[in-house]
Amino acid sequence: MANSTDWLDPAFEAIAIDDDGRACSDIPESACQDEAGNFFAHVTALSLSKSSDALIDPKLVLSWLIPAVGAPAALVGLLVPIREAGALLPQMFTAEKLRQLPKRKWAWTAGAIVQGLAALAIAMSAVLLSGLAAGLAIVIALAVLSLARSVCSVCYKDVLGKTVDKSRRGRATGLASSLAASVAIGFAAILYFGPADRFDVVVGALFAAGVIWISAGLVFTRLSEKAGATEGGENAFQSAIDNLSYFKTEPQLRTFIVTRGLLTATAFAPPFMVALGSQGQSSPENLGLLVFSSALAALLSSFIWGSLADRSSRRVLLLASVIGAAALAGTVACSIFALIENDYVMPVFLFVLMVSYQGVRLGRSTHLVDMANTETRAAFTALSNTAIGLVLLAGGAFSLIASMAGLEVTLAILTMMCGLACWSAGQLEEVQE
Fold first, then answer.
1. Together in a domain, 291 and 206
2. Cα Dmax for the chain
């Protein structure tokens, strides 16, 4: 009897098969037979999930929405810490239990559905509530979304590793990222050119994100996943505690964590830039330009940063630090000299900052992997993620600084963090040599 996904074979071979043929090197033959269907299930589910991420982006979309519903601007500074720390820190405690599931696609499905419901809750909060109540409801729903995302993050790579051969995984995730980027650019075009009220467009996008996330979860159930190993999991937080001695014995690890911590400024800054642009009374369509700038930066710079990181992740982190500091310093200068009201000033600086952000993401992951060896990689990762999770959580303090000292002072502090990262990145060794 023919496999139900045989009709996908021509498309799979055209997209994912190179001159070496279709042989599978690190998944069982039974999984190899189902690989075409699994490949496209991954591409579909991941592109849907990433598209939802773009539609709900806390750095831009929710940062614009908070003041739009009349909530205190101070809540804007909580969005990135909740989103980033909420997706990272819980993994320290849940990975061990999730590892005990023979089939982890169901955990990813549940996480995607919960993210969808949380996105719908954010949209409903914007429609039905206003002022502080709306802001708090959005922040709480975002926290739930981030927790669900942490579950998906723990499970995804493992499921991918069991269902798609290693020679084709990059193509699956790369194709999904490209499809999601096109959705983000389309969303930006609607925001900028569309005749509808921007608030209505954003709320509609949030409802769409919820439905899309739930759809991603349902698509993921179509994966043919074989039961896998359930041993070998460990509590990453406990691993970090057990390996604290590396902080003393590995100066390069300390320098890397300091650099990575300082460069969280590139993640913290966008909401404050959006808020500063709103203060400058730029046109409502400006949100579309900001979303477009962010999507374009990811689309254009990721491949270049990846290629550079393969040669020198140290230089990537150093260059990303310089670019981030320049973008933030330029934003502060334009605000001081009252140039921020120009509709194109903030999107340009945001584009430059997001280029830096993409460099930080690719540089840090490559550097950590290449800096460690097989014996220390797990411990280094646990220590680094725990430390950065705490830094991200502490980033909520920037909200207090913004409310007390103003947005320009907050962005100036973030500029100094990138400047200090230039120095610390310069102390890193060339781990690719």
1. no
2. 72
Q: Is the pLDDT of residue 21 over 70?
A: no
DSSP structure string for 263-289: TTHHHHHHHHHHHHHHHTT--TTHHHH
383 and 270 share one domain: yes
230 touches 96 (CB < 8 A)? no
| Residue that the structure tokens 């340009």 belong to | 348
- What CA–CA distance (Å, rounded) separates 259 from 150? 24
Residue 151 tokens read as 């579950």
Residue 391's contacts (CB-CB under 8 Å, 6 or more residues apart) are 261, 264
pLDDT in tens, 244-256: 778 788 899 999 9
Q: What is the pLDDT of residues 205-228, one digit of tens each?
A: 999 999 999 999 999 998 877 776
Domain of residue 126 covers 34-159+170-222
For residues 388 and 88, is the Cβ–Cβ distance under 8 A?
Answer: yes
Q: How far apart are CA 417 and CA 356, in angstroms?
A: 13
Identity (one letter) of the amino acid at 356?
S
Burial call 261-271: b when 16+ CB within 10 Å, e when fewer: bbbbbbbbbbb
- H helices then E strands: how many in the chain? 20, 0
The DSSP output letter for 74 is G
Range from 130-144, 177-191, 230-244 that averages highest in pLDDT: 130-144
How many structural domains are present in the chain?
Answer: 2
- 56 and 181 housed in the same domain: yes
Q: What is the pLDDT of residues 100-141, one digit of tens each?
A: 777 778 899 999 999 999 999 999 999 999 999 999 999 999
Which token pair is 78? 């909580």
CB neighbours of 29 closer than 8 A, spacing ≥ 6? none
Q: Are 189 and 295 in contact (CB under 8 A)?
A: no
381 domain-assigned: yes
416: which 2 tokens? 């100094």
